[in-house]
Automatic annotation (TrEMBL):
<protein>
    <recommendedName>
        <fullName>Elongation factor P</fullName>
    </recommendedName>
</protein>
<comment type="similarity">
    <text>Belongs to the elongation factor P family.</text>
</comment>
<dbReference type="GO" id="GO:0003746">
    <property type="term" value="F:translation elongation factor activity"/>
</dbReference>
<feature type="domain" description="Translation elongation factor P/YeiP central">
    <location>
        <begin position="68"/>
        <end position="122"/>
    </location>
</feature>
<dbReference type="InterPro" id="IPR020599">
    <property type="entry name" value="Transl_elong_fac_P/YeiP"/>
</dbReference>
<dbReference type="Pfam" id="PF08207">
    <property type="entry name" value="EFP_N"/>
</dbReference>
<dbReference type="GO" id="GO:0043043">
    <property type="term" value="P:peptide biosynthetic process"/>
</dbReference>
<dbReference type="InterPro" id="IPR001059">
    <property type="entry name" value="Transl_elong_P/YeiP_cen"/>
</dbReference>
<keyword id="KW-0251">Elongation factor</keyword>
<dbReference type="InterPro" id="IPR013185">
    <property type="entry name" value="Transl_elong_KOW-like"/>
</dbReference>
<feature type="domain" description="Elongation factor P C-terminal">
    <location>
        <begin position="130"/>
        <end position="184"/>
    </location>
</feature>
<comment type="function">
    <text>Involved in peptide bond synthesis. Stimulates efficient translation and peptide-bond synthesis on native or reconstituted 70S ribosomes in vitro. Probably functions indirectly by altering the affinity of the ribosome for aminoacyl-tRNA, thus increasing their reactivity as acceptors for peptidyl transferase.</text>
</comment>
<dbReference type="InterPro" id="IPR011768">
    <property type="entry name" value="Transl_elongation_fac_P"/>
</dbReference>
<keyword id="KW-0963">Cytoplasm</keyword>
<dbReference type="InterPro" id="IPR014722">
    <property type="entry name" value="Rib_uL2_dom2"/>
</dbReference>
<dbReference type="InterPro" id="IPR008991">
    <property type="entry name" value="Translation_prot_SH3-like_sf"/>
</dbReference>
<dbReference type="Pfam" id="PF01132">
    <property type="entry name" value="EFP"/>
</dbReference>
Amino acid sequence: MIEASELRAGTAVKLNGEIYSVVSAEYHAGGGQFGGMVFVKVKGLQTKHVKELRFHPDDKLEDVELEHKEMEYLYADGAEFYFMNPDTFEQISLPKEAIGPYERFLQPNMRVPVELFEGTPIRLVFPEAVELKVVSAPPGLREHETATYKSVVLENGLEVLAPQFIKEGDIVKVEVATGKYLERVRREGRKG
């Protein structure tokens, strides 16, 4: 059992005999005689219906154990994203809604953990940061070498602000949630 106050996006719960995946959960503090409430948006795994529910923070819900499996991203056809189990070569698909903002960071042959319930894919468990190659970067301004940022384009088409010393061909680490530059990745055998 899990308390409503512990619900997070991606948690799977059983409500009225049906399995739901939590899309979002927000706690709102109460005031005076009114206690706090947890507002939860859930999506049915079988029906794909989205519901908005309200719980008291200490309400108990039946949580469901999910299987974690590393899958290899293959391709997308617009509505579905296809992944392959590298051990069995079995292919599964996830709808575009289950991928959400992570879509722009998926690269072919990239291995990402997928959560499954009884063999049905629920969601992608994306890393907090990804490494991408810089494909376009204007020359740096020498007098502002580290204090100012410039706009660079990454291999997935994302445009980020990066320090002046970043150049084409560099590999940079980008935070997935915000799309912000974190650092330049140094490779073995490379100077600079």
